[in-house]
Amino acid sequence: MRKIIFFHLMLIFFLISLLVFLHNYYVSILLTVFNVFLTFYLVNDNKYTVNIINPQTVLLLGMSILIFGRFFSVLLDGNYLASVFCINFIFYYCSSLYDSYKLIIYLNLILIFFSLAFILPIKNNKLKNENLFFNLNKSKIWIVFFIGLLSTFYLIFENFNKIQMVMGSGYLALYEGQSEDYETPYSLVLNAISIASLALLFSLKEFSLNSKKIFNILFFIVAFKFLMAIGTGSRSHFIAGLILLIWYVFHDKKLNFKHYVFLFLSFFITSASVNYLASLSGARIIDNIERNFFENIAYVFYNQGTSLMVFDISLKYSDYPILGFWKVIFPGIQVFYNIFGITDRKDFNWSSYVVYKENYAAYMNGNGLGWSIYSDFYAFSFGFLPLFCIIVFCFSRFILRVVTSNNLYFNGILLIMITTFFTINRSSISGFIFILIVYTLMYLFFVRFKWK
User: Fold this and answer.
1) pLDDT tens digits for 383-416?
2) Closest CA relative to residue 28, chosen from 96, 88, 102, 133
């Protein structure tokens, strides 16, 4: 009953935010932030998880910083209200009232339908753990470990090269001539192998005492790879690394009030210091403007919340290139497009398509906009709002399925979610899908198939 009351309260806040937006969009922003907090509560008020350190919380935390960050900055410092719906990277514009109104609608509906998936009853989804250990032996686990170790070490070595690059040429040097993330294609493959190997070892860590130790070794090496990303200026990957460490410590423990105070303080300290840490390598430049603690937090939230406007500009189109759908569902398939003479990025990459439409010079220069999982959902809905809501709901139910399934295969997917869900708010879902594909193939090969 309590969850139903809070859910109806979300609907009321949503309706009020629509009614008052044209007269005072500060109130709409405030009510939307209230809905963010209500969503946190609704997806965690259940018996599915031991505490709030779970995939749905990680996803919402990323959403709160990378998309709703600008809304929080407005509440902390009203000076940001005038530019909350503006963008000055690749595109230089402020959204019209109509477009901002549309954005508020979509943001609230994401929260509402994401929450609804956790409110509606679910069947007993505790899948029985099949006795798959009979197919396992120590050699399989060691092979998975070395596959993950080698791929992770290569990525660490590559990150050191990136740090040297930004120290010499600055953060934007990583993106020169790139249309998407600055990772090379083989780096994306190795990253998928690294995370998939770690996920598989997590699933199998109860096989023996050694398998748990092997998992722990690879875990801390992967965590280090995430944390060192701050040297390249990637604040979101650094925070994702901290989340991974926190999850490792607390995911199977019941938390008390002291734990939550610790996590809350850690969050604000990290938010306040992340720019300074990124500036140590020269990847980020700190201005000389003096700010108090809350003004500094607002500044960080505003700059981290740029994905709000990435999502906004993606809402302007509903006729995305059809080849982009295959690229999202089957990541890497674009390498075969060359066979058919399709080499122009705008024909299969949605982010590039938007840049091409909005800033042709930037497109020809190879500049990338970035993307968001919700922009993917919008493209798959063809701009049809009810279908968009259904996609968000289904994605949320998938998370719930993983969280409630005590099964070897789904245990690994849970770890994949923990590692990817914070940053997925400012990237395509295709990266997550690719890791799932690699993980599934490794699971079938090392766990399901018998070796002679």
Assistant:
1) 999 999 999 999 999 999 999 988 889 999 999 9
2) 102
3-class DSSP assignment, residue 25: helix
First-last CA distance in the chain: 55
In a domain, 144, yes or no: yes
Same domain, residue pair 202 and 325: no
The distance of Cα 170 from the centroid of its chain, to the nearest Å, equals 25
The verdict on residue 444 lying in a domain is yes
Rounded Cα–Cα distance for residues 299 and 80 (Å): 9
Tally of domains in the chain: 2
432, 353: one domain: no
Q: What pTM does this model have?
A: 0.91
In whole angstroms, give the CA distance from residue 250 to residue 207.
22
Residue-wise pLDDT tens digits, 186-214: 788 899 999 999 999 999 988 776 888 99
How many CA atoms within 13 Å lie on the side-chain side of 181? 20
| C-alpha distance from residue 395 to each of 12, 59, 305, 358, 398 (Å) | 24, 12, 22, 30, 5
Residues 158 and 269 occupy one common structural domain: yes
Burial 174-194 (b: 16+ CB within 10 A, else e): beeeebbbbbeeebbbbbbbb
The range of the structural domain enclosing residue 339 comes to: 320-364
Judge whether 344 and 72 are in contact, CB under 8 Å: no
